[in-house]
Amino acid sequence: MKIFANTKNNEFHYEWVDENGENYLAKDGKRLDVELVPLGEGRFSLIKDNMAFMVNISNNEDGYHVRVVGDLFHVTVEDERTRQVKELVKAASGSKGEKTIKAPIPGLVVKIQSAVGEVVKEGEGLLILEAMKMENIIKAPFDCEIVEVSVSEADTVTQNQALIKIKGVE
Fold first, then answer.
1. Rg, C-alpha atoms of the chain
2. Backbone angles phi, psi at 97, to 5 degrees
């Protein structure tokens, strides 16, 4: 499973590897030899290269505040699925003309939440797509009218397959 961590000025890509029953974190295909030892609520000892660092982590609505050796970082963490859905919504919101919402990942259409001609508000659900045993709500990137629904409930879809065509409304 890929993991994306972002701070204000940097983006880091990691992968959680499950190899022969052993789990570890890798960056650029190389195993990271780090250990995070819980010490108490939000407090950890980070051990890397035989050195220990005190880490305090607290979460809020849009990520985590991580304090390491006196430096404070705001960190957001996303898995690959969440990132793809977010990028899809971001791409679709660039223009409020006619847009086709495509499947960010292969999956099963569980429920279609809107019909042709219906006007939906930004953030309202258009359909539910199940992938990797997780339900993903595909939301309207802006206030829009449903122009076309290209799939039906119980359809299996491939990545980038057209799902719903929308057009922006004022």
1. 20
2. -75, -150
Taking the C-alpha atoms of residue 60 and residue 169, their distance in angstroms, rounded to an integer, is 33
Query: How far is the C-alpha of 18 from the C-alpha of 165, rounded, in Å?
Result: 39
Question: What SS3 state is found at 89?
Answer: helix
d(CA 55, CA 2) in angstroms, rounded, equals 23
pLDDT tens digits, residue range 81-107? 877 877 777 666 555 678 899 988 889
| Residue 72 tokens, joined | 């404070």
Read off φ and ψ for residue 44, nearest 5 degrees.
-140, 160
Q: For residues 1 and 69, give the distance between their C-alpha atoms in angstroms, rounded to a whole number.
A: 29
Distance CA 160, CA 88 (A): 10
